[in-house]
Amino acid sequence: MRILITNDDGINAPGLKVLEGIASEIAGETGEVWTVAPAFEQSGVAHKISYTHPMMIAKMGERRYAAEGSPADCVLAGLYDVMTETRPDLVLSGVNRGNNAAENALYSGTLGGAMEAALQGLPAIALSQYLGPQTFHADDPFEAAAVHGAATVRALLDHGQWDSADYRLFYNVNFPPLPASRVRGLRVGAQGYRRDASFGVEPHTAPSGRRFLWIKGGAQHLPTAPGTDAALNLEGYISVTPMRADLTAHDSLTPLREALE
After folding, report:
1. Is the dihedral of CA 112, 113, 114, 117 positive or negative?
2. What is the pLDDT of residues 127-142, one digit of tens each?
3. What are the structural domain ranges in the chain?
4. Is 96 known as a binding-site position?
5. 224 and which of 138, 148, 230, 250 could share a cystine (Cβ 3.0–4.6 Å)?
6. Rounded distance, CA 102 to CA 223, Å?
7. Architecture of domain 2-194+221-260
8. Per residue in 46-71, pLDDT tens?
């Protein structure tokens, strides 16, 4: 199996090292793991593509490249510049430092990479490691992902739905904020919503007198509705959420037609 991996934390991020191990286990001795990751951190860029300016790409080692762009850019670079002879069989994005559950999924560059792969007609999985009191300062905050990652990916490859729709399925996986030994298993859940935890801004004044704004996230320990991604993670489960890039509110089509047409 040929696997392309990327992330949004950057080419030197520890989570990418974890993903390299997961991908190597899935690819097997006869497979290949190719890395095309951002040269610098690209957290929060979602599905951004560098449409208005070029990006530099540099070979860092065998099957390892850094691109000055977003995760979606890196997937495009991997498909149309790095791996032109044979496309990958699978694209993995992550392992993100911090969860991409609930509303975080909408901002996530990690999911942006997986989404672009799906739009390009490839199976794709995004993987993220929830952080919390038991993992944030641990010697290995990615332990749950490292220990359970390959089995989770393999379970999806063997038993997940892999369609060929125009907006084809991809998967969002979040590992709970626990040591690997305390992970309770895997559960499938919808994307949740954290109430009263939206992003905002925090103003600061520089020594020069200029005013700057830092984007500030909401509390991450708030559970979402029962059975949804963040709630499952906080209960100790690995959450798996099937996703599509189609943004249509299908439940509103019929009543809107009746009202407007």
Report:
1. positive
2. 999 999 999 889 999 9
3. 2-194+221-260
4. yes
5. 230
6. 9
7. 3-Layer(aba) Sandwich (3.40)
8. 999 999 999 999 999 999 999 999 99
